[in-house]
Design brief:
Shape: elongated
Radius of gyration: 41 Å
Number of domains: 2
CATH class of the largest domain: Alpha Beta
Number of strands: 17
Strand content: 15-25%
Helix content: 25-40%
């Protein structure tokens, strides 16, 4: 017979261990995404702790009462009450079968009905914790005690539930998983490729720079009327040039060998496509901004361009006013030499322009034309990259782009990388400056894809870009 004091000590140990398991469980749970399985496990541990604490309280109270009886001197301690067999279990360490080997003492003691329900709860709790069947755990802890087995079977029948895909251990594992085809990302149509098709596209090849000569309008080489026998003026022209040097966009992305072997669809193809799509948006964003050229990037088309004032009043009149103002600005700036104008606009603005109607007529002057891809006979390049309520007019004949023919994509499984997405640095800039964190593709059995896109552009003549923002139509 196990002394009550020893049983109390063991129960206290189990309570401490269970609370440590509960604390360890919650420390390992992502607090921003608590799953149903995490909640269920915590509830199981809570039930276990409550049951153990209840047993502990009962044992402590029994020890107190028995101590009082033994000290009363009425001889009841010797009437066999201290020799009633008890059933004791210590589920601290699993045996080789994965279930703890309890110390079982069989006896004839008749327990109150509530004790059998407590036993059923204990069996259910440790069945989940040990991953064993209900009957196997009951047999290990309480042996073949008939009342205990009957109570456990009653509780088990009462607690049965239909198989559900959301219940771990009861049919969730049978639910099959499949993946549909990857939904394509809706990307804005690229401005650069459509604009370069209307301008001049070049390639650096082996050259380190491209020089584009341009004649200045002043001084003028225009002829003058000359009288008979008078001297003819001799004039000198002037030339300038613009120089394009190689610039580039580049990015690296990595994945493990296991991902490459088992991903469906193949991870490499997805990343290749994603890099090209996202880079096209990044290029267009730089293309239409107002920032000047630097040693690493070209100038935006709006650099140095003063915005034309938007026409007030809204409606068709404001739309016509803005079109007239932008075309007038280009004509004035180029002395009437506008060769291939193109609109750059947001698709929402073009839809709104197509719905602009003449007052009280129900006539939509630009609807059919915009459907055909032009506005006032000028081709439209629409893209969501263009800010809403902004229209840009560019003379595409003066747009020169170098290197837009396509990116260079390369794979490596040998490189060592600085895993930084914003401010990457050299791995070792000096003996005391080391970039971190670093990753060896060879050591981690990983693969990297590098994209390098040589690219530069220039608008050859000034005054060939005009824009309006905050339009009212």
């Amino acid at each position: 017979m196990t002394p009550l004091s020893e049983r109390i000590t063991k129960i206290q140990t189990l309570i401490v261990e269970s609370k440590e398991l509960l604390e360890e469980h919650w420390n390992g749970v992502d607090q921003t995404n608590v799953s149903d399985a995490d909640i269920q496990k915590s509830q199981d541990l809570n039930t276990t702790i409550a049951s153990l604490e209840k047993q502990h309280a009962a044992l402590v109270e029994s020890e107190r009462l028995l101590g009082q009886t033994a000290g009363s001197g009425n001889g009841s301690a010797g009437n066999g009450s201290m020799h009633r067999a008890l059933t004791v279990f210590t589920p601290s360490q699993p045996d080789k079968g994965g279930v703890a080997s309890p110390a079982i003492v069989h006896g004839k003691k008749e327990l109150p009905p509530l004790e059998y329900f407590v036993r059923a709860a204990v069996v259910g709790t440790f069945s989940k914790l040990w991953g064993k069947s209900f009957d196997e755990v009951r047999s290990k802890i309480y042996g073949d005690d008939e009342p205990t087995r009957g109570t456990c079977e009653l509780i088990l029948r009462a607690a049965s539930a239909p198989a559900m895909t959301t219940v771990a251990g009861w049919a969730q594992e049978l639910a099959q998983t499949t993946y549909a085809a990857l939904m394509p990302l809706l990307m804005p149509s690229a401005i650069l490729t459509r604009l370069s098709a209307k301008g001049l596209a070049l390639s650096f090849g082996t050259a380190g720079r491209i020089i584009i000569p341009t004649r200045s309008r002043t001084p003028s080489l225009a002829g003058s009327f000359v009288g008979e026998g008078l001297a003819i003026p001799v004039r000198q022209g002037a030339f300038t040039s613009q120089t394009l040097t190689p610039k580039k966009l580049a990015v690296i992305s990595t994945w493990t060998r296991e991902m490459a072997d088992h991903s469906t669809p193949a991870i490499e193809g997805l990343i290749r496509e994603a890099i090209q799509q996202d880079t096209s948006v990044a290029v267009d964003t730089v293309l239409i901004d107002a920032n000047p050229a630097t040693v690493i990037r070209p100038a935006g088309l709006l650099n140095g361009v003063v915005a034309t004032t938007a026409t007030a009043g809204g409606g068709l009149a404001a739309l016509i006013g803005d079109i007239t103002a932008l075309l007038g600005a280009l004509t004035t700036n180029t002395y009437g030499n506008v060769r291939s104008p193109v609109w750059l606009a947001n698709p929402t603005d073009m839809l709104r322009a197509s719905l602009a109607s003449a007052v009280n007529t129900g006539i939509f002057p630009f609807r059919d034309e915009i459907r055909g891809g032009t506005l006032n006979t000028v081709p439209i390049i629409d893209s969501a990259t263009v800010p809403a309520k902004t229209m840009i007019l560019v003379d595409a004949a003066d747009f020169v782009v170098v290197g837009a023919e396509g990116p260079r994509l390369e794979l490596s499984d040998q490189a060592t990388l600085h895993m930084e997405d914003t401010a990457p640095a050299e791995l070792v800039a000096s003996p005391s400056t080391v970039a971190a964190p670093q990753r060896s593709l060879f050591q981690t059995d990983s693969i990297a894809l590098r994209m390098v896109l040589p690219l530069n552009w220039v608008q050859r003549r000034s005054g060939t870009v005009a824009y309006v923002q905050n339009v009212t139509w």
